[in-house]
Amino acid sequence: MESSGGESSSMSAAEKAKDRMERLHKLHLLRTTARKLNHAEVVAEDARNKLPANFEARQRQADWLAANEKGRAEAAAKGLDYDRIKLLNVSAVEAANNEKKKRKKNPDPGFTDYETLTARQYNRLVKQFPEPDMDKYQNKRQQVGDEIFYGGAHTISQGTHKDTPQAINNMVNDLEQQIMKRKSFSRRRTHNDDADIDYINEKNARFNKKLERFYGEHTAEIKQNLERGTAI
């Protein structure tokens, strides 16, 4: 009986030792795995820090453009209108939110000065330009030569360029839109026969009104003195 008890006790100790070694082995594997994952995360974070600040936004835009081009190609292959298909998948709430974002992003600042107005129109026209075709660019350069292609102020390049019908149509359409826009903002002013005539033509009259609007309160006394003949 005593020998049986001693044998059972020794087996129990061996099993405990085996169990302890197995747990230590598992802990060692977990530590090794955690170390590898931590190292991979450090490497990935370092790579992310080296990317440009707007990389994620550019990546999302690239993915959207790729998906858009793929959908447009599939719709064209089926003879469908891709823009119409996209609109069918947009809810009324999303359309309203998109319209609000557009108005917020591109608000109409109104008239400030002619320099700013010209700059806005220039930027608007530049955005309408298509993506440059580098093949046509290089072909044009080889046709006319670098001396004319990169000519300066005294280079005569007449006859080396011919506008395409599409470019001419775009110019005409833009001019027509400008004319229609001016008409929508134009209204006939009522003429006051009792008002003083201090202008020589309509343009000069508008200019005088602008002066009066901005500087009238500051020059009222000077104007009255001039009219009375009491100005010094």
Annotate the secondary structure layout.
Blueprint: H1 2-49, H2 55-77, H3 82-88, H4 92-105, H5 114-127, H6 134-144, H7 146-149, H8 165-185, H9 202-228
Notes on the structure:
- It is a single chain.
- Helix content is 73%, strand content 0%.
- It is mainly α and 232 residues long.
- Among the domains are: 1-50; 53-107.
- It is elongated.
Brief summary of the model shown:
By secondary structure, the chain is mainly alpha-helical. The protein has helices at residues 2-49, 55-77, 82-88, 92-105, 114-127, 134-144, 146-149, 165-185, 202-228.
Going by helix content, strand content and strand pairing, the class is mainly alpha
Q: Work out the strand percent.
A: under 5%
SSE string: HHHHHHHHH
Largest sheet: none
Q: Radius of gyration over alpha carbons?
A: 39 Å
Ends apart, CA distance between termini: 138 Å
Identify the overall geometry.
elongated
Average pLDDT rating: 79
Key attributes of the depicted protein:
single chain, 232 residues, mainly alpha, 9 helices
